Amino acid sequence: MSKIQKKIWTVSMVILAIMSAIWITLTYYNNKTLNQYNEILERYLNMNEVTNASQQVIDDLNDYMLHPSLDNLEQIELSKRKVLQAKNDVYNLRNEENNFNLTNYIHLIDSFIEATDRFIIFYSENEVEASAKEFTEATSISNHISDMTLTLIDKELKTYDRIYLGIITQSKDLKELGIWLILLIAFMLLVMSYWFSRSITKPVLQLTKAANELSKGRFDEQVKVDTNDEIAFLAKTFDHMRININKLFLETKQKAQLEHELQQNKILLQESQFRSLQSQINPHFLFNTLNTLSKKAYLEGSQETSDLLVNVAGLLRYNLKQMDRSVTLREEVVVLQQYMEIQKARLTDRLKIHMEIDEACLDIKIPTLTLQPLIENAVIHAIEPREDGGNIWVRILNGDKRITIEIEDDGMGMEADKIEQILLEKYKQTEGHSTGIGFSNVVKRLRLFYGYDDVIEIESVLDRYTKIVLKLPILRRENNDTAPNRG
Amino acid sequence: MRKTTLIMLSTIFIILCYFTTVSAVRVFQSDLELPKEITPDQTQYRLVLITQDIDTPFWDQVGRAAENKARELGVSLEIWGNYGSHQEDFLKNIEIAIQSKVDGIIVQGLDSQAFKELTKVKASFYGIPIITVANDVPMDESLRRTYVGSNQYQAGRMIAAQLIADMGPSGNVVLMYNHNPEHYQQQRLQGIEDSLKNYPDISIDYAETESTRDEVITATQAVLNKVPNAYAFIAVNANTVGAMIQEISKRYQPEPFFIYSFDDGPESLTLVEQGLLDGIIKQSPEQMGSQSVKLMTEWLKGETVPLDANGYLTEIQIMKATDIP
Description:
Radius of gyration of chain B: 28 Å
Domain HAMP (chain A): 198-250
Membrane topology (chain A): Multi-pass membrane protein
Largest interface: A-B, 40 and 31 residues
Keywords (chain A): ATP-binding, Cell membrane, Kinase, Membrane, Nucleotide-binding, Phosphoprotein, Transferase, Transmembrane, Transmembrane helix, Two-component regulatory system
Shape of chain B: extended
InterPro entries (chain A): Bact_2-comp_sensor_kinase (IPR050640), HAMP_dom (IPR003660), HATPase_C_sf (IPR036890), HATPase_dom (IPR003594), His_kinase_dom (IPR005467), Sig_transdc_His_kin_internal (IPR010559)
CATH topology of the largest domain in chain B: Rossmann fold
Order of helices and strands of chain A: HHHHHHHEHEEHEEHHEEH
Structural class of chain B: alpha/beta
CATH class of the domain at 3-159 in chain A: Mainly Alpha
Transmembrane segments (chain A): 7-29, 177-196
Oligomer: heterodimer
């Protein structure tokens, strides 16, 4: 049976039990009182019966005297038996208060019977005088009996008067008790029903409130109902549902974010591909032309120009390669050197570059075109504006768990909010870059590739220096297959 | 708020509970007390004390003493009587007592044919012992077992002596008694006459009357007319003294007579206290009551058999109006 049903049943049973108890008590007392009344009335009737029976005997005696027939004699016997019966009944009515009188009464009846018997004997023996005397005697006793009946009843009335009073008082008390009981029960029922209804409606209300919260999208509030009925069960399952929804919700959110990142990555790739496509015909032509120029310069004995052209062509080729591939740091460093050669040719003495490269760490994977844009950035901001040029240091250092790449210049430095913008990937490039890839692009791709944000750090003091530090984890070969997906 | 409500509800609950409990206790405890049933073996001697008068000081004392004694002895006793010396009712009571086969009847003697018939014939027929009390009826006429009460002859003598002491040895004395004087009155008369015989200067006048008030008044008037020089009155039947004094005081104010009577009349004591009666013979009603019950019980139990046929005499003394403070 369900709990709520049980509760309702219990309340109904309690009410029923109380009502039955009261009903039984009242009925019992009513019955008792009625029995008492009856008993008392019975006494009077019994006593009266004696009078009637004795009178009947006298009547029969009289009849017999007038018509001495066997029938009448039988009639006398019959009524005599009635008297005796009545006497027996009366005998049972003796109690301490009427003992004396009732004993007298019974003896009086005996005397009456004896007188009747004597009368019949005398009469049958034809002793007229004696029988007449006995008849008178019997009549007088009969009169005495009726007198005494009255006296007895009178006495009974006196005796039972206080019992009547008692009965009346009791019924009054009973009525009073009834009123108090009704008040008490009504009160109890009211309080009980209030509690009972509350015990049902309160959890329902709590549940409703929780459902409301849930429908508003607040998934973090626990649904709690402290009862032990079905509502609590409902609440529990409801809470489960809430937790599940919450979980699903979070998962979806995460997924969405992931998708968003992927989308961004794609957009960036497309952007660079688009740019490379834009200049696809041109670069091929340029590349071939450059090669031709390089050969021509070589043939013409201009070694330096030829080398420069080779560098330009290499840079161009590197740039034309698929962008969505990772390369080794070594390749990257090679491209960097080529770029440096070109810039040196352009800027001659103004650019002083210092490379410190730990050869042991050149095998790690890295997104293509990461170092070149940074160096280019340094050249644009630190070297080009100054007539006397500047220094650029590139250090690739082997650490325990990661490889640190530092690109430092002694230029005019960067403002703090600019650094922040760059790190938050909000900085919009204004100056043109040779590869079409800006600082922000690099930061984004590095973060996407390695999957954590502090892959890049920028230190800068205005008019003193700017230092970009890349902290790259050492990715081993076995990770190579997954890496391209992220870059 | 919640606490206040709770306290209030609890208070109401407790109050209701209290009143309900009190009421319930009252209902369930008030067990009606029916008269106790008697055990079948609880048989007691049933005695009846039948008097002609009840509610007179004299007979009240007899009855009370008898009841006390009966309780003491463990016999049941009923007192039957009627008002105003109604003889028919009195006789009927005796008859009922006899027919009811009580164990013993203690009765105020009545010197009448019907009484004697009842006691002698009927009571003997039913085998019921009778003791007379206060007033005697001779044994051979009533077949009573014994008599408990004053020596009426002695009482007569005593009152005569008091009369002489008060009045002196000469004068007219009126004796008022019933038309057919009962045994006890005869005895009293006898006593008075025997005493006064010795004083030749005292002359005795007799006034006969019936018991009813009117007749007593008529008789009084008659005797006052007949003996205008009377000095003293003696009401031999104490029941008549009230009417007699009333009539005398109508004629003489203040009444100049010496009036004497006995204490077994309804007005005797009051009249003495008022000073209208000069003296009464004071009997011992309590002794009569208790002794008669005791003797009857002893006889029934067979402890004192037979009872003294001459009777058991109780104390008498004179009580004068001057004795009363």
